[in-house]
Amino acid sequence: MVERPGKNYISERAMHTQDLSLFSGTASHELTAALARNLGHRVSPSGVERFPDGELSVHLDEAVRGRHVFIVQSLCPPVTENLFELLLFVDACRRAAAARITAVVPYLGYARADKRHGLREPITASLVATLLQAAGLDHLVTVDLHAAQIEGFYHLPVDNLSAVSLMCDELKHRLSPGTVVVSPDAGRVATAGDYARRLDATVAVLQKQRQTGAETKVLKVIGDVRDRPCLIIDDMITTGGTIAHAVTALLDAGARPDIMVAATHGVLVAGARERLRHPAVREVVVTDTIARPPSDSSQPTVVSLAPLLARAIRHLANAESISDLFR
Ligand code: R5P
């Protein structure tokens, strides 16, 4: 167990929305502002500074003593910077005697590093958990974890919310009749099943092989996609390689050139938008777990998770169950 200095003298007590403080890390300003509007609560002032030597510093500009603090920060690029900033926020809150510290990490970076692929490799997802707990975190709220078992790296409550319900609300009126939900690999079959259940659709699965961190190959299409429109779903789009290969494989298998793409986390590194641009791809839908650059003219459609996260925060601040948010 990770020891958490400074916790012992803080008594746990029932919290209420008026006792919460909401902070935003630099990666999640827009989402935090939207979430705060949904919550009817303001964002507490804070600052992040970079010193000339590159070191980061965080300051909380109001007291948090005895409060339930929520810090919103996605671990999107620059991932390590954003992680370190989150650690500094947690440390600052703990040293300022917050009663409870919850990190709302809509996109949990490093989650794909959840196992060793060879000898002498780290398990970075586990290390991230160790670091957050060592800093003094009490609770983690996240969305569509890359692998649900990552929760096991944490010795504290983890609420892994799902974006699927909100995504389906957006998608259901835009899909062509007879659409097949496609899982781009074996890891996303359960999620594809969830989409299919909500959209009253069937499922197909692609057998994917990862060649390198950036390269994948589709070996086989399992399921009937001939002359059918498709909805490819995924937890994240990073380079766009997985989706681009899936599109090619589906068209080769006779799918109709009427393909929609839905992924919770639009990491969309340089080159991803170009890879996703294909005449058969009608629309790409992502959520706002990762902010889009305002200058980006090829914006995908964005579904906001602010209402979902606001409800989660409200329930947690009131020590109420959030199980209905998983349905
Ligand atoms: C892989 O297991 C994930 O679920 C995604 O399919 C993958 O990380 C997407 O990355 P990229 O867009 O780089 O192919």
Number of structurally distinct domains: 2
- CATH topology name of the largest domain, in short, is Rossmann fold
Main sheet overview: 7 strands, mixed
Mean pLDDT: 92
Cα Rg: 20 Å
The secondary structure category is alpha/beta
Highest CATH level, the class of the largest domain: Alpha Beta
Along the chain, the helix and strand elements come as EHEEEHEHEEHEHEEEHEHEEH
- Based on the structure, what is the oligomeric state of the protein chains? single chain
CATH architecture of the largest domain: 3-Layer(aba) Sandwich
| Residues in β-strands, percent | 15-25%
Note the main attributes of this structure.
alpha/beta; Rossmann fold; 7-stranded mixed sheet; 14 strands; globular; binds ribose-5-phosphate
Summarize the structure.
Helices cover 27% and strands 25% of the residues.
Descriptive account of the structure:
This protein is α/β, with parallel strands linked by helices. The chain has two domains: 12-162 and 307-326, Rossmann fold, CATH 3.40.50.2020; 164-304, Rossmann fold, CATH 3.40.50.2020. It is 27% helix and 25% strand. The chain is built from eight helices and 14 strands. Strands 10-9-8-11-12-13-14 form a seven-stranded mixed β-sheet, with helices on both faces. The chain has a five-stranded parallel β-sheet with strand order 1-4-5-6-7, with helices on both faces. The chain has a two-stranded antiparallel sheet with strand order 2-3. The radius of gyration is 20 Å and the shape is globular. The protein binds ribose-5-phosphate (R5P). Ribose-5-phosphate is lined by residues 112, 184-185, 187-188, 216, 234-242.
